[in-house]
Amino acid sequence: MAGSWKLVGASLRRHRFHTVGSHCKARTGAEHLWLTRQLKDPFVKAAKVESYRCRSAFKLLEMDARHRILRPGLRVLDCGAAPGAWSQVAVQRVNAAGADPGSPAGFVLGVDLLHISALEGATFLCPADVTDPKTFQRIQELLPGGRADVILSDMAPNATGIRGLDHDRLIGLCLSLLDMAADILHPGGAFLCKTWAGSQSHRLQKRLTEEFQRTRTLKPEASRKDSAEVYLLATQYRGVQGARKG
What we know:
By secondary structure, the chain is α/β, with parallel strands linked by helices. About 40% of the residues lie in helices and about 20% in strands. Helix 1 packs across helix 3. The N terminus and C terminus are likely disordered.
């Protein structure tokens, strides 16, 4: 797996953006700054070269290469899956499309409020709110055996511009997924979620420490340095006794 990330790095070194000033004319200041950043971002270019739906694929590729989150045969629930880049990586890593006949075939289920274009090897439930009880029931029906071995979440709430409020809402989403894990995450499974540092982070960390044997905080290279996002990886799920928490 580590070798795979080195190959990605080699791709990034081979395919760099050149400055294209003419493309930035007649735009607002905000649009100009966004486009300039995209033009200079090697991960944007690499995503196109490697046919990933967006640059976030490289975040999961790196984290998986270093921590072996995904393996052939595993069942994966990808929350906040649109546009499908993490599901692309998951399909490859768990052999969900059966590309490697010598390895067990896994399963990938992606859920999002937004539409997700079809992807071979993945099942998409959209538009759907992963925190809605009806969606939860459908997730259980679609997952083989009603269980997932890995829960992935690159979800984020629509930004209000109020940092504290946005942080609280994202922590709330992550905690909702942990509530769901009580009924669908297989013992020994893994949970990977995006979060933003803030005053409520300790609540999420506490839950992860209680319910998993090991937790790590990750900041992959593809996560922009000026971004407050970090990823929490929890492994070896202990399981939670009783019904799903409210």
